[in-house]
């Protein structure tokens, strides 16, 4: 915080939360355009990225990795399954556990899908060094905020 300036004098543009909110919304709009040919929303895309990395995960593992609650993740997975990207099935050892894995379509788009950040980088008009700087800064902030949430 700027020393000696009363908190009440910080305008909207001086709030980190507002700048992050605006950046997040703008990035989501940018991804919307990049993802249009695939007919994926940004939340669906991040599920696919996770599955392209791991092939098969439990519902619980996806929820934990993406910090999404059941009420948000369930409809997302249902839509991905309906659109042919994934398959869901109950674990043969524990019927309460749902496994999520790539369908043939999901596998077919893996190589193309993992290159989507390259298209995003071009649209951002950033070089790799600038992209990496913002990525590392965002990772550190995210990790810090998650640590704070865990504190009593």
Automatic annotation (TrEMBL):
- List, in alphabetical order, the GO biological process terms annotated in this UniProt record: response to stress
Give the UniProt keywords, A-Z: Cytoplasm, DNA-binding, Transcription, Transcription regulation
GO cellular component annotations of the record? cytoplasm
Q: Where is the HTH marR-type domain?
A: 13-152
Q: Does the keyword Lipoprotein apply?
A: no
| GO molecular function annotation | DNA binding; DNA-binding transcription factor activity
- Compartment(s) where it occurs, according to its Swiss-Prot or TrEMBL record: Cytoplasm
| Keyword field contains Cytoplasm | yes
Q: Per its record, how is this protein called by name?
A: MarR family transcriptional regulator
What is the organism field in this record? Answer: Petrocella atlantisensis
Q: What is the lineage of its organism?
A: Bacteria, Bacillati, Bacillota, Clostridia, Lachnospirales
């Amino acid at each position: 915080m700027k020393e000696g300036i009363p908190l009440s004098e910080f305008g909207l543009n001086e709030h980190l939360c507002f700048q992050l909110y605006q950046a997040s919304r703008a990035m989501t709009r940018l991804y919307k355009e990049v993802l249009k040919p695939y007919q994926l929303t940004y939340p669906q895309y991040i599920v696919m990225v996770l599955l392209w990395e791991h092939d098969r995960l439990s519902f619980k593992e996806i929820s934990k990795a993406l910090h999404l609650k059941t009420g948000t993740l369930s409809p997302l997975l249902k839509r991905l399954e309906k659109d042919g990207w994934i398959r869901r099935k109950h674990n043969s050892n524990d019927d309460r556990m749902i496994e999520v894995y790539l369908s043939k379509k999901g596998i077919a788009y893996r190589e193309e899908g993992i290159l989507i950040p390259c298209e995003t980088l071009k649209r951002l008009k950033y070089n790799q060094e600038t992209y990496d700087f913002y990525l590392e800064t965002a990772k550190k902030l995210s990790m810090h905020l998650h640590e704070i949430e865990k504190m009593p």
